[in-house]
Amino acid sequence: MLGLSITQWLFGILSLMAIMFALMVVFTRSPVNSVLYLVLTFFCIAGHYLLLNAQFLAVVHIVVYAGAIMVLFLFIIMLMNLNADTEPRKHIISRIIAGVVGGMLLFVMVGALKGAEHLQLVQAGTSQIGLVKNLGMVLFNEFLFPFEIASVLLLSALVGAIMIGKRDTSTN
Amino acid sequence: MTAFIIYKAIMCAGVFLLCLGAAAYATLWERKFAAFLQDRKGPSRAGWGGILQPLADGVKMFMKEEIIPNVSNRSLFILGPSLFMITAVITSTVVPWAKPVIINGTSYDMQITDINIGVIYLLGVASIGVYGIMIGGWSSNNKFALLGAVRASSQMISYEIPMGIALIALIISSGGSLSLKEIVEGQDAGVANIVWQPLGFLIFFICALAETNRAPFDLPECETELVGGYHTEYSSMKLGLYLFAEYINMFISSAVIATLYFGGYNFPFAHELYAKLGLADGSVWISIIGFGALITKIFGFICLFMWIRWTLPRFRYDQLMNLGWKSLLPLSLLNLAITVLVEYLRGNIKF
Questions:
Q1: Chain A contact set for B124 (CB, 8 A)
Q2: What is the per-residue pLDDT across B259-315, written as a single tens digit (0 to 9) for each?
Q3: Tell me: the pLDDT tens digits for B108-139?
Q4: Long-range Cβ pairs for the range B12-15 (8 Å, 24+)
Q5: Which of B115, B120, B150 sits opposite A60 (nearest CB)?
Q6: A-chain residues near B120 (CB < 8 A)
């Protein structure tokens, strides 16, 4: 069909869906629907990881983003009872500024991607690095130090969150 | 190619029907079992000994009037139960049901798909399972439903963490593979994982109870406080889907527990039995016997789930959170540390 392989068809459909859902995240007025569209976008991106033979990354992406972070987002939005009507109407000046800034970002991206065809693309679907065994080997041998630094960073964020969330005993 | 597609289609249809059938008869068995524990007879009118009761329940569910509240978010209200059902069913794809069958020299796995991240896939599906409850509870536009949905999500997130850590310990002690097929085959050669992971099994089992929202963890639908919890506004087959998916969840959790900790389709002295019966590897009969062993284990766990439900009272919400965060999480970390130490002493881990 059109001289495209199944993988190319999958890539095209997934990309279209990802872009469509990402746009819906922005355009939907209800915050709950926004969050749900974002979850769908994450699923499409996980599909892209699968096409790149990175199964571990795909499932971890689902577990962490769709399964944990977005559930917490949804949780908060449901508790705050945000509706489409409560969303504030933006002032016309902030809309114009947003339009200008978005246009400039587009400009920069066009400039940056102009010479992209000369870049050496990684052959998709043949690399075995995304499989959990190889990934673990690389992560715990070559990149052990940055990996541990990242975990310390997460730990400090965790401690910080507990500090903010802790009840202030001095005022009580 | 065509043979492959036909084989996969047969496997998918077979596993799907197995899940639905098992869940349907689990509802009947639950009522019979409750009746047994409470010294009653249970359903006995539809068919011989109540054997047609699930059918009657299904017909009743379909025939009831369908009510969608005016103030609800209509599309999400319909999406909620569908999503819950989908996530309940797709967990079954990675469970190996029996030994591979060899037909005309080709080996056919009795499993829909064997992915090398099977265990993480299970965690992933468990973590998105909460969306069905959350969306349904929120879109009902009802205080009790919302409270039920919020309870469900915080409960599921809390119990996923000790579950994941218990699974890490299991993977370390079972040889480091994330594929369920390889975990089962590892138990064929050695002993069942429960021998090396008794504490891990306990943690995993408690978390599985919490993830399936079974009593004593059924706070999301706690009828003494929340009317019906997240499905207060649901009626007809949408309610049926929620109730039915709970039984599918229970069936699949039992299958996963049996696979991970109790050897799946293997059983003690299996090879001696097969040798005595004169069955070669890849024979259909070996698969059928193994499948029977797995179903027996699943049935045992379903009975355990029900026994717990009809024995223990429901937790209070703070007790639930304390159990999850202050008991199970430290215990699972301790289990992980002990596992690493034991495996190091056994020489399976090298630094």
A1: 59, 62-63, 67
A2: 888 888 888 877 777 778 777 777 778 888 888 888 999 999 999 988 988 888 888
A3: 778 888 888 888 888 888 888 888 888 888 88
A4: B12/B112, B15/B92, B15/B93, B15/B95, B15/B97, B15/B112
A5: B120
A6: 56, 59-60, 63, 132
